[in-house]
Specification:
Shape: rod-shaped
Radius of gyration: 28 Å
Oligomer: single chain
Order of helices and strands: HEEHHHH
């Protein structure tokens, strides 16, 4: 596991959030399909009453309703990939020392400066000391 995969984790978290929002909007657009009925009569005698059922999209943004299904499936695949990356990194984090988990969370996920990481770590930690600890750890992996 290297520094890039940790940055990918941040992107994966954002991707999950954004993709869920896109799926929500897509489902909302699907609900914009409207249906209506109209009544009329035959053109010729005996002029019997007829009912016509009409349905379609409220706004002509999508010509093929199947296109919505295909787009939703693409978004779901994107969501699965991002969630897989998140799970992989979270599982890896559980295998490393607790102190390093905290350093990574503060520095990479919360994007704090090394001095702020040292303050949060406490126990007279210094910015240079925490940075060197992180650098050594990442050099091993």
């Amino acid at each position: 596991m290297d520094k890039q995969i940790l940055k990918d984790y941040i992107d994966a978290c954002a991707q999950v959030k954004e993709t869920k929002e896109q799926i929500r909007k897509l489902r909302k657009a699907r609900k914009q399909m409207v249906a209506d009925t109209s009544k009329g009569s035959a053109h010729e005698f005996p002029y019997t009453a007829q009912t016509y059922h009409l349905e379609g999209l409220a706004y002509p943004t999508v010509r093929d309703p199947g296109e919505l299904d295909r787009l939703e499936e693409i978004l779901r695949e994107r969501l699965r990939n991002a969630e897989r990356i998140k799970h992989d990194v979270e599982a890896w984090l559980n295998t490393i020392p607790m102190r390093m988990q905290r350093i990574i969370r503060y520095r990479i996920f919360e994007e704090l400066a090394w001095s702020d990481v040292a303050i949060r770590m406490g126990r007279k930690a210094t910015a240079d000391g925490v940075r060197m600890e992180y650098t050594r750890f990442m050099g091993e992996k």
